[in-house]
Design brief:
heterotrimer, A alpha+beta (498), B alpha+beta (102), C alpha/beta (503), A: 498 residues, alpha+beta, nine-stranded mixed sheet, three-stranded antiparallel sheet, 15 strands, elongated, C: 503 residues, alpha/beta, 16 helices, 39% helix, globular
């Protein structure tokens, strides 16, 4: 494969305007699969959640999960969509070994929800993203590729297929073409996916975890030369597994397309895979006329015709819209506009809300998530929620600080331990022996030694210059390797020298 | 109204066989290419039957909203699921290497 | 006791409850009969003597202990090889499913087992029910008991021949375009396609989802009603199942009275293209119905002209998708391509499907793939579905004026084996009278009405009724059957030649 010629992002935007489309797949958290009663649970032993229906045994027939339809309608309403008065499932016919029927039961020209929009905010500006449709479909099984050198699909000697995931309900949300100020495109893409995550998460219909695949985004991108109205050929980038990657994928594809177009080449209409490690995309499969999915209405399923009464009932179950919720949280928390923008930009709104709900002050929650956690996420290149620490754990650590058992500095070591999977904050404190020493006996002895070692400072304090205590506190803390309650040390020094 | 029926060539049959994942032999391709046009000519009569105002019937009996409750039912055991597999390993279906991707 | 295999299911039911025969005796008699004649007929792909006798013994024991049993408990049955049966091979007449044993029962299998009918075995059929002669079975054709050089009809030739040859009193068939009714006509037996959705399709290997229906194959209209009643009714596992009570078909079969019944003769299903002997027997049967007090009128269904064409688009289109699952990945016979030592999954799928499917199946899959493909969908599949709407309107208009419609079931009597194998279009024409019912979902019943003069082979007549009015078929069918049997002095099958019995 020849190396891609990339045009720097800023330079590309001097000649081209990006045109984006985003497809988001949401795995619903229903108890059972879309068309059968097998558990839709994540992470079970292989092929323990299968039945004649989801294995596509000869003769088996699907029956629609009512809860999945309800979730789809609520999702549609949250995305400000119209809800179809009558719609059908359709078969999308293509062969693939992880798809048992060799067709996917999906929806084609009659989606359950259509014509919606959401407003996302980037750098204080609001951008409206039009939603073309949201439709119901089912997930595929999972193939494990064995042999070969890379572990990737190519070069595998054989594949092992687990159908536990086959038939888990999915909702696909498709935007209309997104055209925003070119330099904003990557950030808007990220903000949109993040917004949808918050929105759907708020509905409680999905775990919306990008890292676990319950929210998956595909980025469709093409460029058109400045001033032109003709759309370019688009690429479809899959495997974009984090919000950060959404942004990077858009940037990369803009640079890559520009390189091809500058050289007078043609962009291939193809599927591409985002490579998390390099931030690049690699060629998947060229789209061709072989992609003739032969859609037709699914004859094994009855049409779905949600009554207007049902739709209105479901509308009443929607949580407050994100904009309203954000305004309410900002007031409750006493955050400034800038705090709020940083919070949303970091994707930490829900995390802070949950941390506060777990018993900390908003200020403390903000301090940890926007400071310590945002820094770690940035350093490791993962989304903040995928760090491996939960709001409850952050709250527990703050409680340890409030109780004087650890201090802020030690808390960082507790974060390390929790993230490394060493256990609960309490267990990490014990295992790593991080608890501060507040035992007067041990501290008193250390204070005595410090006074003896620095008689000048001691004299100053005796003379009433309490500011001089800092030097002695420092010495004690050093001796105790930071694991001392600094407040108590100060008290002991003053007691002893007055 | 719809497009008039077109002929079907041997290359068309080969393309369709690809979509249908059937590795037809040359003899089979020849044979189908020779007999499908007559069948298609016959079935193309449907294009004369109805105008755009006629709804297409996808279900013989009009029924809507057939759902099941979101309640678990017992699954097959992995042994049952895999019993008829041509090959299996590690409690999974063993299939030859997968080339394409979706 | 009379020859147990010659008794109707209704007679057997009474003999069993009266204690005149045990289920083991009845079942053994049929197993013996199968052993004696099936070499010549080849109605069965798999015989489960052991399982059938075990069920029979269990029923005898339960009956002996005074348990209240289903009316058909202990009466043996044959099941078309397209119906999933735990522990019994289910091949659909296809090489690709050779040796496949389902881990689950079809809903109708569950009902048959719950009612205690011993399952004698699985019957032969055209591969995946694609055919009108049972010659497209990968396991060899079934022979017509009236003349073993001729076809028994199809796709359910095995079930019809089994019943006609007294190998089973009851059988299950499936009917996508006439696969129960046409073999019934060609073998002198009774076959019913219930209203679409009347009988669960769960566990029937799908040919065309919007057309398929399972139904009874028997030697009398009353037996058909008894079996219909057993297998029909709502099934939550089939989204297209009708969630309403089944009409009382047994009572209708016992009523058997056409006085004042308005019968419409379908003008388009007669005349040219219909064998003289078929038309003659049909006219006589209609005259008989008139003499019994029915009011007979002629009706026209103008859209019938397009029905066959529509059928041969809808059926292969749905089949091409339904049969995609047979890819030799999860089940089925895996056949790697010749000359490749490291084939991909895609190549193995394609070579397995080429090796495992017969010519007719491939023909229809290719045709269906074409009809659904981009650029042709509206012209073919879309137009065909519109024809169904037009046809539905025609039938609705006809049923506004008449209670039932009648036509010959098949344009011809049984033809010689091999006669139409190289002429698919002429084979497809066999279904011209039966497919309209499938296209619009209405029920149909075929019963024997005599032998054609030119070949002395059975002729069938088909009654059609509005959707969910299956009881009308049984009333009219039983009435005509009684009139004919009074005239013949017995059943038509009594006139069938004795089959040579193997030792």
């Amino acid at each position: 494969m020849t190396a891609e010629t990339l045009v720097p992002f800023d330079e590309a935007l001097t000649r081209y305007d990006p045109v984006m489309g985003l497809e988001i797949h949401i795995e619903l958290n229903t108890a059972t699969k879309m068309f059968c009663g097998c558990p839709a649970e994540f992470g079970a032993e292989p092929n323990t959640h299968t039945c004649p229906v989801c294995l596509a045994l000869p003769g088996a027939l699907p029956v629609v999960n009512a809860k999945a339809v309800e979730s789809a309608i609520r999702m549609g309403l949250a995305l400000n969509c119209e809800i179809a008065e009558w719609c059908r499932f359709a078969r999308k016919n293509y062969f693939y070994p992880d798809m048992p029927k060799n067709f996917q039961t999906s929806q084609y020209d009659e989606p359950i929800a259509f014509d919606g929009h959401v407003d996302v905010e980037v750098d204080g500006e609001t951008y409206r993203i039009e939603i073309e449709r949201a439709h119901m479909e089912e997930d595929t099984g999972k193939a494990l590729h064995v042999g070969g050198s890379t572990g990737r699909i190519h070069g595998a000697d054989f594949s092992l297929v687990d159908y536990n995931r086959a038939g888990i309900p999915l909702i696909e949300i498709v935007t209309r073409t997104i055209e925003v100020p070119p330099e904003k495109a990557p950030a808007v893409a990220r903000a949109y996916v993040s917004y949808v995550r918050d929105l759907i998460g708020g509905l409680g219909v999905s775990d919306v975890r990008m890292d676990q695949g319950s929210l998956r985004a595909d980025v469709n991108l093409s460029l058109k030369p400045k001033g032109s109205t003709t759309l370019g050929t688009r690429s479809e980038t899959k495997n974009v597994n984090s919000f950060r990657s959404v942004e990077r994928a858009v940037r990369y594809e803009i640079s890559r397309h520009a390189g091809i177009l500058d050289a007078g080449g043609k962009v291939l209409q193809e599927t591409r895979h985002f490579q998390e490690d390099t931030g690049t995309t690699s060629s998947g499969r060229e789209k061709s006329d072989a992609d003739d999915y032969r859609y037709f209405p699914e004859p094994d399923l009855a049409p779905v015709s949600p009554s207007r009464e049902w739709v209105e009932e479901l509308r009443k179950t929607l949580p407050e819209p994100p904009a309203v919720r954000r305004a309410r949280l900002q007031a409750d928390w006493g955050f400034s506009d800038l705090d709020m923008r940083d919070t949303i930009g970091a994707g930490a709104l829900d995390l802070i809300a949950e941390t506060v709900a777990a018993g900390t002050t908003p200020q403390a929650a903000k301090k940890w998530w926007l400071g310590e956690m945002a820094r770690r996420a940035n350093e490791t290149g993962v989304d903040i929620e995928a760090l491996g620490i939960s709001p409850q754990q952050v709250a527990d650590i703050q409680k340890l600080i409030d109780a004087g058992r650890i201090n802020d500095k030690l808390a960082r070591q507790v974060f390390d331990g929790v993230i490394a999977g060493e256990g609960t904050p309490e267990e990490v404190v014990v295992a790593r022996k991080l608890e501060v020493v507040s035992d007067d006996g041990a501290l008193g002895a250390a204070v005595d030694r410090a006074i003896e070692a620095d008689p000048d400072a001691a004299q100053k304090i005796r003379d009433g210059k309490q500011a001089a205590a800092g030097a002695l506190i420092g010495a004690v803390m050093k001796e105790m390797r930071g694991q001392a309650d600094a407040g108590r040390v100060r008290e002991l020094i003053i007691e002893k020298l007055s | 109204m719809s497009e008039p029926v077109k002929g079907i060539s041997r290359a068309d049959v080969a393309h369709l066989a690809g979509l249908a994942r059937i590795d037809l032999s040359d003899a089979e391709l020849d044979h189908l290419a020779s007999e499908l046009p007559a069948i298609l000519e016959h079935v193309a009569a449907v294009q004369q039957a109805a105008g755009d105002d006629v709804e297409a019937m996808s279900h013989p009996l009009p029924v809507n909203n057939v759902f099941r409750e979101d309640v678990e039912v017992p699954c097959l055991t992995p042994e049952q699921a895999l019993a008829m597999a041509p090959a299996s390993d590690q409690q999974r279906f063993l299939v030859p290497k997968i080339l394409g991707e979706e | 006791m009379a020859d147990l295999v010659k008794l109707s299911a209704d007679d057997l039911s009474r003999a069993l409850s009266a204690g005149d025969a045990s289920s083991v005796e009845v079942t053994q008699a049929h197993i013996d009969r199968i052993a004696a004649v099936d070499g010549a007929i080849h109605a069965f792909l798999h015989v489960d003597a052991e399982g059938a006798l075990a069920t029979a013994a269990d029923i005898d024991k339960r009956r002996g202990s005074g348990e209240k049993l289903h009316a058909l408990a202990g009466v043996p049955i044959a099941v078309k090889d397209i119906v999933a049966t735990i522990g019994l091979p289910t091949t659909c007449g296809s090489a690709i499913l050779d040796g496949w044993i389902p881990p689950y029962d079809a809903t109708i299998t569950q009902r048959i087992k719950a009612a205690g009918l011993p399952i004698l075995g699985k019957t032969n059929m055209d591969e995946f029910a694609m055919g009108s002669s049972t010659e497209h079975s990968a396991y060899g054709p079934t022979h017509n008991p009236w003349d073993t050089t001729r076809i028994p009809g199809g796709s359910g030739g095995g079930s019809a021949a089994a019943v006609a040859a007294f190998e089973a009193p009851l059988a299950i068939g499936t009917d996508t375009g006439g696969s129960i009714r046409q073999p019934g006509a060609l073998t002198g037996t009774v076959g019913v396609k219930p209203t679409y959705g009347g009988v669960s399709r769960y566990g029937l290997v799908a040919l065309a989802s919007s057309l398929d229906q399972a139904g009874p194959v028997t030697r009398s209209v009353l037996d058909a009603a008894l079996l219909h009643e057993l297998i029909a009714g709502h099934d939550p596992m089939d989204s297209t199942s009708i969630d309403e009570p089944t009409p009382d078909v047994v009572a209708a079969a016992r009523r058997a009275d056409v006085t004042g019944l308005k019968i419409g003769i379908i003008k388009e299903l007669g005349g040219d293209g219909f064998q003289a002997g078929v038309s003659a027997r049909f006219d006589e049967a209609v005259a008989l119905l008139t003499s019994a007090g029915a009011e007979v009128v002629e009706v026209s269904l103008p859209s019938l002209e397009y029905a066959l064409a529509a059928y041969y688009l809808v059926m292969p289109s749905e089949a091409s998708s339904n049969l995609a699952r047979f890819d030799a990945m999860r089940y089925g016979v895996r056949v790697p391509p010749a000359g490749s030592d490291d084939p991909s999954a895609e190549q193995v799928m394609a070579s397995s499907r080429d090796a495992g499917f017969g010519d007719e199946v491939k023909r229809r899959i290719i045709l269906g793939t074409y009809a659904l493909s981009s650029g042709y969908y509206d012209a073919y599949y879309g137009s065909a579905q519109k024809v169904r709407t037009l046809l539905g309107r025609d039938f609705a208009a006809a049923f506004a004026n008449v209670d039932v419609l009648v036509s010959p079931t098949s344009p011809t009597t049984a033809f010689p084996l091999g006669d139409k194998l190289d002429d698919p279009l002429s084979m497809y024409l066999q279904d011209v009278a039966t497919i309209p019912a499938n296209l619009v979902g209405i029920p149909g019943l075929s019963l024997p009405i005599g032998l054609a003069d030119e070949d002395n082979l059975p002729v069938g007549l088909q009654f059609l009724a509005p959707a969910k009015a299956d009881d009308r078929l049984y009333n009219a069918g039983a009435a005509l059957e009684a009139l004919l049997e009074a005239k013949w002095g017995g059943s038509l099958l009594a006139q069938a030649p004795e089959l040579e019995v193997a030792q």
